[in-house]
Every structure is written in structure tokens, then in C-alpha cells.
Specification:
Strand order of the largest sheet: 1-2-3-4-5
Number of strands: 5
Largest sheet: 5 strands, mixed
Distance between the termini: 26 Å
Number of helices: 8
Strand content: 5-15%
Length: 315
């Protein structure tokens, strides 16, 4: 990617913000593609929430068990992606429900870690009667209450976007859906399978959307006309219109966050930042704020000899 202001790729994915995939826990890191350090909206959010959480996820890359809410979100996103692969006129609630069971079975069999999560309540591929799919089905029904997919022809679903800013900071992530009008206006759509958040949660969601807006602005030279969040649990949506000056300021915010990350990375000083969110953290046993001891710091992965290092992980 030679253009210092813009570079982008597009691939389909439902599992990771990191196009290179997670590190190989079996010690086969040399077999994995290597990239220069980059920033995703999730990892930027991690550092803002708790620098030590960023370290555990992005540098130590300590595995975290999935939650059932995350699994349901993955399932619903995958069904909606497949729904838009159908021609107009075939994108009905009934067709979405038909896609639900086979998509669930495919994802379940491809994700061994899910088996332990669902072992006790029989909600694997043979446990549909346990009602697991009912919750996902209700979220799909809520989606159809918000819009008619037969009136849309998205340019892409699960779009990998990436750019390098003039400062050298590389940004990357995945956009749930990108709509482009015949006249060129861009709309970025993100599905949320939870309920519409309060002010703090809304700000976090808009941070993610502005991140994507910056990447698209730098890669396409167009400020997205609309950033749209669709909250499927309670059938609400939130639309926001950014402007160029706002995105320029946000770009500087991202560069400031990255500068702080690099400083912490080179010194190893990733301090915990206790909050109410610690109740949902999978790393309390390793956190000094809870009497734990982090693993030995592996060091900041500086790229050498033209190699690149992956620092992003999936949500």
C-alpha cells in the first residue's frame, strides 16, 4: 500500500476484525501472515476503557471464552449477510427464518469452543427445541420492522476496510453493511443485537461508526452521508450525519490514542483502570486490581525487516 493517505481492501468475514486471523496458539506464529501494528475500533475502545485490557487482548492475545450473547450476535449477522446475497423479492422474514437453522449448524460445527458454552442446555445443532434459535428469530423479525431489505442493494456486507493515515497510523475494521446510492452518497450500517444504549453506550457506538467513517473518507474521498445503528432487541435505530471537519478532529483523536498505546507498548506500562465494566472482564485473575499477576510482558512487537505484526483481535 503505497499511498500514504488511502489504501483499502474488501473481503467477506463474520468472525474477526483482524484479516490475518488470530495468532496460532500451537506455536506456529511463523505460518501466520504478519502486518504492521494497526488500530481497530474495538482495540481503541479497549485502551480507552482499560490499558491493561488492551494489552491482554492485543499483545498477550489471551483467549476469552465467548458469551451466548456474542454467539447470538454472530449468528444474526451471518443470517443477514446471507439474506442480502439473495435477489430482491426473496428477502422475506420467512426466508430469513429458513436460513437460521442451517447457518447455526454451520457456525456451531466450525467453532469448537461453542460446544462447551452450550454443553449444559443442549442448544447445539441437535437442541433447537431448547429455544436457542427463537431468540435469534425475534431479532430477525425486529430487523424487518426497521427496514425492507428488498428495497436495498448494498455494495457490500461484512466489508473489510483499511487505510493508512499520513501519520503512518493504520486503521482497519469490518463494516456490517455499506450502502451506496446511484448518486454516490454512502451510508454505513451497523447491526446491534442488544438494546439501544444510554448516553455512554451511545457514545461508544458512535465512536465505532466515526472510526469507519474516517476510513471510508480517506479511502474513497467521500464523507459518508449517514451512519446508521440498528438496535434489534428493541427495534430502534439511530442515524447520524458526520461532516468533514468533525472527521478531521476525530482522526486526530485516533492518532492521540495510538500515540498513547505506542508509549505504553514500548515501556510496558499498561495500567488497569477499574470500573463497573470489570464485572464482565474475563481477565480478573490476571489483573493487579483484583490481586492477580499479569504474565511476563512479551514486549512491543516492532516490525523489522519489512515484516508486519498483527495487534488486532476479534470482538
Amino acid at each position: 500500500m503505497t499511498d500514504t493517505q488511502a489504501a483499502t481492501t474488501a473481503t467477506g468475514s463474520t468472525t474477526s476484525e483482524d484479516p490475518a486471523g488470530p495468532a496460532d496458539g500451537a506455536g506456529n506464529e511463523a505460518l501466520q501472515p504478519r502486518r504492521r501494528p494497526a488500530l481497530s475500533p474495538s482495540r481503541a475502545g479497549d485502551f480507552k476503557q482499560c490499558p491493561l485490557l488492551y494489552r491482554f487482548r492485543a499483545i498477550d492475545r489471551i483467549p476469552e471464552p465467548p458469551t451466548k450473547a456474542q454467539v447470538r450476535g454472530t449468528l444474526v449477522h451471518s443470517v443477514l449477510e446471507r439474506l442480502f446475497a439473495l435477489p430482491r423479492g426473496d428477502r422475506s422474514p420467512e426466508r430469513a427464518h429458513e436460513l437460521l437453522a442451517p447457518t447455526w449448524e454451520e457456525l456451531y460445527r466450525a467453532s469448537p469452543e461453542w460446544a462447551e458454552l452450550f454443553a449444559e442446555d443442549e442448544t447445539g445443532p441437535d437442541g433447537h427445541a431448547a429455544g436457542w434459535l427463537d431468540g435469534a428469530g425475534k431479532l430477525l423479525d425486529a430487523y424487518f420492522d426497521l427496514e425492507d431489505p428488498n428495497r436495498l442493494d448494498p455494495e457490500a456486507c461484512e466489508l473489510h476496510v483499511e487505510t493508512e493515515l499520513g501519520s503512518g497510523l493504520r486503521l482497519r475494521g469490518y463494516v456490517d453493511r455499506l450502502d451506496v446510492a446511484p448518486t454516490g452518497e454512502i451510508r454505513v450500517v451497523d447491526y446491534k443485537t442488544g438494546a439501544a444504549p444510554r448516553a455512554i453506550g451511545e457514545a461508544k457506538a458512535l465512536f465505532q461508526m466515526k472510526f469507519y467513517a474516517v476510513v471510508l473518507w480517506r479511502t474513497r474521498g467521500v464523507v459518508p452521508r449517514q451512519l446508521k445503528l440498528m438496535y434489534l432487541r428493541d427495534g430502534q435505530d439511530l442515524a447520524y450525519t458526520p461532516d468533514e471537519d468533525e472527521l478531521a478532529r476525530f482522526e486526530r483523536t485516533l492518532e492521540a490514542i495510538w500515540s498513547a498505546i505506542v508509549t505504553a507498548g514500548r515501556t510496558g506500562d499498561f495500567r488497569p483502570s477499574p470500573s463497573k465494566l470489570c464485572d464482565w472482564c474475563a481477565h480478573q485473575a490476571l489483573c493487579p486490581a483484583f490481586g492477580g499477576t499479569p504474565p511476563e510482558y512479551p514486549g512491543w512487537p516492532e516490525p523489522t525487516g519489512g515484516e508486519e505484526t498483527v495487534l488486532d483481535r476479534a470482538d
